[in-house]
Amino acid sequence: MGAEELVEAARASGVGDPRVLDAVRATPRAAFVPPTHVDAAHVDVPIPIPRRQVTTQPSLSARMVEALRLAGDERVLEVGTGYGYQTALLARLAAWVTSVERWPELAAQARRNLAAEGVGNVTVLDGDGTEGAPSHAPYDAVLVSGAFPEVPRPLVDQLRPGGRLVQPIGPGGTDQVTLFERTAGGLVERERLLPARFVRLYGRHGYF
How far is CA 108 from CA 5, 81, 115, in A? Predict the structure, then answer.
């Protein structure tokens, strides 16, 4: 078992961008899961991590990342770092990634994982992801890894005009991964990518 299994799973889910598939191929998922779950790292399933959280299924991460259409020069905001696997995918495809994680111990582990793999173009912050990271804004793209019925307003405000945002829209557990674009008139829904199950997005502008 190896990364090719995850590449094939991403391709089967509809991912066609060669750069995204190469990022999946080059990112060792085993480096971004708890040691107790390394044997499952190359299976296309979510993996539990502390604080009753789970990692996003790799093929789903790849679909969400592909929808951002990253060219390599973007500044990206990620909400929900987890153990850093999706962060590492984004870092291979963009110029810089700022990732915000609610749980300090998860953020600390993600920093260790990313550093061990030599991923240097990332800043991982502890904090309320629904507030974004205004000190690093504006962003060309935003990827949200938690579900809420609407996009938190601060994330819209920190997105450049023309920028793309992907978020699961729903209450958590029954959600629709949706692509938005910021226009002169505000945030516009562009595409409903696929149904999926996500944990809830918690914060000042999410659930309490």
Answer: 28, 10, 11
